[in-house]
Amino acid sequence: SRKGAMMDNRFATALVIACVLSLISTIYMAASIGTDFWYEYHTLSPAENISEAGRSIWEEFFSKEADEKTYTDALFRCNGTVGLWRRCITVPKNSHWYSPPENDMTTNCISFSLSDQFMEKYIEPGNHNSGTDLNRTYLWRLQFLLPFVSIGLMCFGALIGLCACACRSLYPAIATGVLHFLAGLCTLGLVGCYVAGIELLHKKLPLPDDVRGEFGWSFCLACVSAPLQFMAAALFIWAARTNRKEFTLLKAYRVA
């Protein structure tokens, strides 16, 4: 009985740790999806924002007719950030010529519509006659769909886990572990698709010399979420399989 209690404590500890990891990874994924700092551009000469040319750039950025090249140029020049759902630029609150450009800056964002998420990408960004770039088109669509699939799998796994607790059985924990493993693969695929998409875009539209680009903290949250999902999956599956094995051996011992 003492051995059984020790085994129960070990399994319970593994399940608690797995649940905590699952919760943290879900929070990270939700925060990652809802924030706009997947990629950031830092302009070394933001004073251009106050000029007539700069003003026309960020006015076109908010236009409904803005194509990929138009809003990407604005991101380059106006300290832009890009999320999965929105793109943002930093512009002066007061656009008068006598207003100091370094003061009273504000961040304005515009959301990608659902049609934008599934819109075709072109071989030459902004040129509709250049043909469809299938690689970038499907990478963009996958980076939109995969995070929702990942969160959906984890929520479904959590539902199965609650049912397992209600039934006082560890066997469904294997299914929970498998779902978390699949969620980790989706998150890993999301990260890979985003990196590949950014690299392909910058080959088409190279960064200007005075602009620096880097992955932001929203992207880092997704990167951290994937290993957490894999660790949670491993703990769920280990606890369920080991418990089943120990239970079988204990039952055989008692019969003998």
Automatic annotation (TrEMBL):
One of its GO terms (cellular component) is membrane. It is found in: Membrane. Gene3D superfamilies: 1.20.140.150. Keywords: Membrane, Transmembrane, Transmembrane helix. The chain crosses the membrane at residues 12-31, 144-166, 178-197, 217-240. InterPro entries: CLDN1, PMP22/EMP/MP20/Claudin. Signal peptide: none annotated. The keyword Transmembrane applies. It is a multi-pass membrane protein. It comes from Campylorhamphus procurvoides. This is CLDN1 protein. Pfam families: Claudin_2. The keyword Transmembrane helix applies.
